[in-house]
Amino acid sequence: MGAAKETLGEEQPWAEVSPDAARRLLIAAVEAFAERGYHATTTRDIAGRAGMSPAALYIHYKTKEELLHRISRLGHEKALAVLRTAADGGGTAAERLADAVRSFVRWHAGHHMTARVVQYELDALGPEHRTEIVALRRKSDAAVREIINDGVRAGEFDVPDVPGTTLAVLSLCIDVARWFNTAGHRTPDEVGALYADLVLRMVGAEPGVAGAGAGAGVAG
Amino acid sequence: MGAAKETLGEEQPWAEVSPDAARRLLIAAVEAFAERGYHATTTRDIAGRAGMSPAALYIHYKTKEELLHRISRLGHEKALAVLRTAADGGGTAAERLADAVRSFVRWHAGHHMTARVVQYELDALGPEHRTEIVALRRKSDAAVREIINDGVRAGEFDVPDVPGTTLAVLSLCIDVARWFNTAGHRTPDEVGALYADLVLRMVGAEPGVAGAGAGAGVAG
DNA sequence: CACTTGCCTAAGCGCTTGCTCACCCGCAGG
DNA sequence: CCTGCGGGTGAGCAAGCGCTTAGGCAAGTG
């Protein structure tokens, strides 16, 4: 019952980071940044969590900011991939929107530590890194807006303000990273299902048109 | 056109803070915390923005954390007051919910600097101050949940999961503080109207039941 | 064996941080 | 005039910060 330590869901996804010491440092940084924020986290803290001396960090990363950049980029790429998989899947616009919201929310809840860093520590990045990440965000926005536009064109949705509604839908999903595991005892799957339903209502889709639809895991 | 510097809407609300120097410091702190975050803001920066020497801050506030606490408490109290005014107003549940969301969102957009600090710098508070603020938050949650429960009882709303939907509604409103004036050219009134409509859809209210409803200003 | 290479540490440098302290100034009361 | 007092400053302290440097140690290669 309840959310497991996330470690199970968090240790495999960073498999692309090597060598092993660099990955351990990155995981330690994700935890520290998520708990206390980037600026309140010291390099000594990160190294300590990874079981290393402070200097070890600088063998694998040039600066503390580079660590945040790596986390932010990888995290955004994964979240975007999850979104696009659903967006490019088959089915009606309602089905695709429900699928997108369900998996996007599931990712944010299941990886809420990573998601929190990715979504809320953006301002701590340097200017160039920041603009790079903002570009990735715009792609997420475009993916959602496209589905909603499709639904409007097909007559499935009733949406007076498409950009505004797109913004609200994404905002709703992203904010999951802030409150998840701070507020309650829901599983990522439950939150994903609830939010998919709420979003279908927001766009005025016919009730029950894309209701159930399980789906595999949280994905990497 | 567009959002004025917020200064107009921000300088009067802090009228309850005295003496004048203490208020200037507090306003400077709100700006700095909102722009860069609590931990990235230095006491020298705050004092500088207020046109004072670094030491002047400690005449009016014991610590930097006390400044954040003051901002957080006053901000939460104001936001809660705005919410309750709408919640305790007359009318159907749909009307009250729309009113609550509209004014709550309008406050978050109109005072987005204060709101950002209030909503996103909570973890920077010390333990006791933090729990005090969390208690205020629960009251906001209760206010919204009560309206939704009323609507369900009256048969106005169709809400399978009341706690979950309450959480989502508040989450949606709060996140306005994150993206407002970073994303676009909407006025607080426009965002409030859009969000009130979206929330009515989320709870399955009859369309057009609490549609227009202007309302005065953003309130203090 | 000697020598290189990759990973890691102990020590610490230069700087900034939150905060303090001794002192100063304008002004009201006597 | 002097005195006291609330509000202000300049200088600076102790601590902690991000990051560097010199060196150690185990494994791989001739």
Automatic annotation (TrEMBL), chains A, B:
Residues 42-61 bind DNA. Keywords: DNA-binding. Residues 19-79 form the HTH tetR-type domain. InterPro entries: Homeodomain-like_sf, HTH-type_TetR-like_transc_reg, HTH_TetR, KstR2_TetR_C, Tet_transcr_reg_TetR-rel_C_sf. Pfam families: TetR_C_24, TetR_N. GO terms for molecular function: DNA-binding transcription factor activity; transcription cis-regulatory region binding. This is TetR family transcriptional regulator.
